[in-house]
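Worked example 2:
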Amino acid sequence: MTPQALAQRAYAQTAAPTRTPRDTEYEAISKITRRLKAAAARQKSDFGAFVQALHENRRLWTVLASGVTDSDNALPNDLRARIFYLAEFTEQHSSQVLGNKASVEPLLEINMAVLRGLRQMGAS
């Protein structure tokens, strides 16, 4: 590489796209949802990966619940309450899934609904 090319690379602006908190939330929920869906599909052959994916989903919802209880959270109170309720449901339902008493589908549906909502909010 020539000295000129090295200098251009060193001093060129790095063009990193600007990410909003909503973009970050969307990416995290999407990533965890994909993992959970894939792990559920191979639950019988790799139960450990399924348990790990359920755990990641629970952690996600714990973080979301924690965020909506923060007094500085700007979301409307009604939406904050619904998110907190979904976090509680996710916790309880995940236990039922692990006990083979319920399907993982409702957890996937909740995550997908949240992703659709985040996408719609970003479009407005």
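The mean pLDDT is 90. The CA atoms of residues 61 and 87 lie 5 Å apart.
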